[in-house]
């Protein structure tokens, strides 16, 4: 085979896997719960399934709390009542991830919603991650860059400060312009060095002037449903 993509990892098959994982997570949602709605192509299937269950009368009194403008629009389109985040805990949150380490530490934010996701999901009693098997890694940084949201104000200075200890990486672009998050900030996609201590790195990045937050989600996920061609694997922290 000359093509590097295995047939079972063709995009159309990955979509079916993402949906399978999403359905497993939505099966955990109960009537009356406040649910954190993640962002991305996998979370989309969870939002659609939640909407389907509400419309079919399988769930009632569910309220969604969205982690992005895109998820908010989708939730409304599929008939989920939504509320903005307030200090009450969420019963459950369901979201995708870009990398899932064996201990369920995560890299998130390739979809650009890392800060709202982290702020929302930190309040969830249960954070359930849904993904296809390509997101599993043995160490964070293996496949994906680490998104770091930074203020637009003084962004070149912030990037210089970050590059002192994260030399690889680039500002995320949207065509010819800088990518802008829902919060009006920019994203620096950093290359993670090998053998780093995730908690120490998180502390150092967050201590850098101009940084809003990082896509490292450490110790937050309760479990992950990871779909592969052979079935859905349930990983518990
Ligand atoms: C968005 C995220 C997404 O959850 C992550 O990028 C995974 O997205 P997808 O399911 O499309 O692969 O963190 O900020």
Automatic annotation (TrEMBL):
An annotated Gene Ontology molecular function: ribose-5-phosphate isomerase activity
Residues at which substrate binds: 39-42, 95-98, 108-111, 135
Keyword Signal part of the UniProt annotation: no
Keyword Ubl conjugation: no
SUPFAM superfamilies: D-ribose-5-phosphate isomerase (RpiA), lid domain, NagB/RpiA/CoA transferase-like
Pfam family, one: Rib_5-P_isom_A
Active site: 117 (proton acceptor)
Alphabetized InterPro entries for the sequence: NagB/RpiA_transferase-like, Ribose-5P_isomerase, Ribose5P_isomerase_typA_subgr, Ribose5P_isomerase_type_A
Pathway annotation: Carbohydrate degradation; pentose phosphate pathway; D-ribose 5-phosphate from D-ribulose 5-phosphate (non-oxidative stage): step 1/1
UniProt name for this protein: Ribose-5-phosphate isomerase A
